[in-house]
Amino acid sequence: MSQTNDRKIRVLIAKPGLDGHDRGAKVVARALRDAGMEVIYTGLRQTAEMIVNTALQEDVDAIGLSVLSGAHMHYFREVRALLEQRGAEDIILFGGGIIPDEDLPRLEELGVGKLFTPGANTQDPVEWLREVVPQRWEKQAQELG
Known about the structure:
This protein is α/β, with parallel strands linked by helices. It has helices spanning 23-34, 48-57, 72-85, 104-109, 123-144; strands spanning 3-4, 7-8, 10-14, 38-41, 62-67, 92-97, 114-116.
């Protein structure tokens, strides 16, 4: 379910760097929106700083990066580091794009929750977020409680 206590999952979809191809990001954003999530799409050519600033301003539960340029290690590392610096390491980081299989374990070590590569179904990120975001909410409630 995309809501707990009428709270909607909020997701930021971002295209870091100079990659100008955003069709996949838009398809994922639409699938998440159609599933009842609130989606903020930042558009093309975002810096890691811009992405993290928007995520904090919009109070998102998750950030999805779409990277087709081959610079995935750089951008995921940079976004994760900025989230930690800003005290927002609990924001779920995930992504998709052209990512070689050999990089997947290294990205997982960086704290990237899930990667959706070519061939993934649009329902895959929907189902995954519906599973992990309520766990984030529960952890936040315990920390406050």
